[in-house]
Description:
With about 400 residues, this protein is an alpha+beta fold. It has helices at about 30-40, 55-60, 80-95, 115-125, 185-190, 215-225, 250-260, 260-265, 275-285, 330-345, 360-370; strands at about 5-10, 25, 25-30, 45-50, 100-105, 130-135, 145-150, 155, 175-185, 200-205, 230-235, 240, 290-300, 300-310, 315-320, 350-355, 375-380, 380-385.
Amino acid sequence: MRTIAIIPARGGSKRIPGKNVKEFEGQPIIAYSIRAALGAGCFDEVMVSTDSEEIAAVARRYGASVPFLRSEKTSDDYATTADVIREVLDRYAALGENFDALCCIYATAPFVMPFRLREGMRILESGEREGAFTCVEYSYPVQRGLEIHPDGRIAMRWPEYAGARSQDLQKTYHDAGQFYFSTVEAFLREGSLWGSNTAPIVLSELDVQDLDTETDWRLAEMKFRLTGFPERLEAAGFELKSYTLCPDLQLLEALAERNREEVRRFMINREPICIEDHLDFCRSLKFRREKVYYLILAGGRVAGSVNFEWIAGSTLERGIWITRDFRRQGIAGKLLPEVYAELHRRLGVKKIFTEVMTGNEASNALERKLGARLVATRKDMNEYELDLG
């Protein structure tokens, strides 16, 4: 299924000037949507539709395509998102490129995660639905809504629900304003991203925030920091420090250990990593909300590294390696339960997923010791899951 990600980003913004490229936690806000789309790995093309050369330059800098600027017709205040998408599809078709599916990702969606985009793609690929988009439950039952009458009196909109318990009322949801998947055929047929055969991708309130005012912007930044991985942890007498906080000398010390043949031969990526690529990756982590890498430090010495990445709504994938001088001391088995408990408490993590080479006896023994269950074996890899409750 050939799929295009379209990020609409018009230059004019009345309430927040320059909103689509305004800095959000250290980088232009549109960069989060671009990075998530590229990181999802499920799109054949990631493009930004804009009428602004400034936005186009920023989009290209972060890896998106901008093969053309919008027409005047789709640049005014009356153009709809559907108008913009239709124009993009037509322009690409004129260039000889056609797509089976599309995903519209808003430029001001810093909470969008690559795994959620992959979830939307899987829904389309299943063939059961023609579309999918993000939504969030109303925080208060809409059945208890109030209205103010012309004479100034206030009353329940639906008084028949006055005595109903909240848990007995049907849940209702609203659009979360992050992204919308659709088959091209359904979009062209119905003229909308909300087709009649669309599935929900339900988000937490903490992952949703309108960005229409400066107050909204500040609230979004607060939520962003609140729901991100902690930069430091302590566990089993070790300090875990995010790569983003570590000086280059520590990062290079860790790289030298990681590149040892006896360490990387059991990794999924078994190739040595060069210094430049390693430091570039470490710096990029500052803006990668979906993953974190920690150095494991013992009195300032690098004892290893552990990393986590969101792969589902409450599931993290984990990797770990220990340096030569700290091996065979049971460090991982002591440290990880405490780290898991802290991530469960802070971020609501419910499951840990790991992949281990079948021939790596020590790591397979570690997963069994931690209580993980073997759920699959694919080629030379065992897959484990650990429920945290």
